[in-house]
Amino acid sequence: MYAPAILAAWCSLLLAPVLGAVTWTATPFNPAAVPLAVRSPYLSAWLPQGAGTALNDAWPTFWTGSILGWAGFVKVDGTAYSWLGVPSVPGTTFNKATQKSLKFTSTQSVFVLSAGPVDLTVTFLSPVEPTDLVNQSLPLSYYAVSAASTDGKAHSVQIYTDISAEWVTGDNSLTANWTTTTGNVLTHQVQLASQSQFNEVGDHIQQGSAYHSTLNTASATWQTGQDTVVRAQFINNGKLANTQDTAFRAVSDRWPVFAFAHELGSVTSATKPVVFSVGHVRDPAIQYIVANNGRQNRSLFFWTRFSTVASAISTFLNDYSNALARANAFDSKVNSDASKISSDYASIVALSIRQALGATEITVSRSGSGFNTSDVLVFMKEISSDGNVNTVDVIFPAWPLFLYTNPTLGKQLLLPLFEYQATGQYPNKWSVHDMGASYPKAIGHNDGNDEPMPVEESGNMLIMTLSYTQKTNDLSLIRTYFKLLDQWTQFLITDSLIPANQISTDDFAGSLANQTNLAIKGIVGIKAMAQIASLVGDTARSSNYSNIAASYVTQWQKFATSSDGTHLTLSYGDSSSWGLAYNLYADKLLKTNLFPASVFNMQTNWYSSHANAFGVPLDTRHTYTKSDWEIWTAGLVTSTSVRDLLISSVRKYAADGKSSQPLGDWYETTDGSVEGFRARPVVGGHLALLALQ
Q1: pLDDT for position 13
Q2: Most Cβ neighbours (<10 Å): which of 78, 81, 263, 383?
Q3: How far is residue 661's CA from residue 64's CA, in Å, rounded to a whole number?
């Protein structure tokens, strides 16, 4: 005992200063990374927060971890303080504001920092408006700054903020150019001088422009130029010069920045927020495969209302107070619904929504000089794992988010997969894995050489399609694509009771034959098709598939149960193996009631005694797990205490301060360290319990 005790004491001493790094109030907790502006795969700015990094203790980063130059200063009675980023400005003197609090909701991250006798409240609002396709498709995000005296006296206050050209490229050696427009709105627009349509470098799109904007009030000034020059101008003078640097150059050559300042005047009580927006816009947004290996360029849906980016930005800025009210109402509803489960659950959901929706883009096709508003397709980037487009087994774990917020978005995510396979260009008899290897090129896999997950993806498509239909009573998907759905079902009948050696969605764990959990998915998929057939009046087919599914469950129980009858195995015949049987959630979601209650009770009992410090392992091959599958499993267990054990394990991991990247879904259950992946949309699966309500 002696050596481990010394080691434990030593470890606790090592960890003490790290765990004590948070000096502010965090509500509901301090996440690994705080979402600042998260609206799309290319507008994705985060504060790498880790164990306690204030808003002015690090540069904001793109989801990959690459720096996004974003700086903020405030002057109070002539004394300058930094409040955003970690700018170095030679030849000037400034202090750092002190962070007092951080709060995040489903749509907002709110910081309060004290700058001498004045408190700044900085609200980063990434709107979540899933039922308003124009608003949800706008690749723009707000941040707003308000000041208030803390000593009852009046103080002279000026605020400043800038972004760099790092927002438009993954290669800072490339040349950018920029313009500033004035009028009712001040907008800095910056882009690469040489653009590459639909191509990425370091996951940044090399196309389109970044926009930094604010309303042009009488107190507003602006400037573009070298970072140190522009920032020094504000620190020394409290205002900017309204001048433009026209020496276009590489992003890293004397780091050009695009700045605004506002004079707040004499401040006592809280000022009306000064509102800024940041955005990244490109057009076209998506390249999409159509019949005969054709290509269609698709645009973001907001273009159906706005003819220019300028008009979109103007409307966006002027709508801030209404947007904030809508965001507060959304936050309140989500929090109320999730808190019925637990406060831990509500906090996980709040951290997950922007991240999941921030991987998606809502698009429309052009029709002559206009847009075909009846042709809406949603695209999702498989962020961080491999960059695929509309990966079926990434949409599937995220699916509860769409069921809860707007099932129509889910339908529009599935439509590209249906439309493509209905053209007959995909040669395999099972469902395709994704719509394209590299976002934003949704150009299919006409060679059939996509990552093979035949049972996984076929089952996923059937389960998602039926759940959408049940939620909305819209039969259009099942009527239009009945033949495809039936084709996938025929494949599942041949390969899901005893699945061949193949990978499942957890491909990082390797391939395996006779996977118990994969068989569950296939069998539920067959039963889903039975219900689909029933909905369109094909009673004979429905009865046949129902009988097959029921027969498979009986056989599956014999194959999949351990020899001592205490748990399901990971793979048939290996009684020492087990795993999270999260695909049982689909049986509960669809109310198909295929699997007997005894199976759910058996697994609940098993998980209750097989949790590590940060949750139940994914399976016996490793001690790591997936946060999305932990929460899916929380949705299927029959005990509230086991449900809460799983939820609280994910909450504990999300708040453990061991990572500074946007929430990773793959982590180690023994110590809460992140295994890999970051910022992935699969965290939409954390809404699994809400989708059951």
Answers
A1: 31
A2: 383
A3: 8
